[in-house]
């Protein structure tokens, strides 16, 4: 039973990590983009 639960939660954990990292990258990208615009002006 433990093997089944592990294989079932692993993809969810990976997906969660991917979503979090994707949000983090988008957030940093937004910050750097606004910073670049500020420097341009």
In percent terms, what proportion of residues is strand? under 5%
Subunit organisation of the chains: single chain
Largest sheet: none
Uncertain regions spanning at least 5 consecutive residues: none
How many helices? 1
Question: Separation of termini?
Answer: 60 Å
Domain count, please report it.
1
Question: Helical percent range?
Answer: over 70%
By DSSP, the count of extended strands is 0
One letter per element, helices H and strands E, the order comes to H
Overall body shape? rod-shaped
Could you write a compact summary of the structure shown?
It contains one helix and no strands.
Question: Which terms summarize this structure?
Answer:
41 residues; mainly alpha; 0% strand; rod-shaped
Show the helix and strand layout:
Layout: H1 2-40
Walk me through this protein's architecture:
- By secondary structure, the chain is mostly helical.
- The protein has one domain (1-33).
- The protein is built from one helix and no strands.
- The longest helix has 39 residues, at 2-40.
- It has one helix at residues 2-40.
- The mean pLDDT is 78.
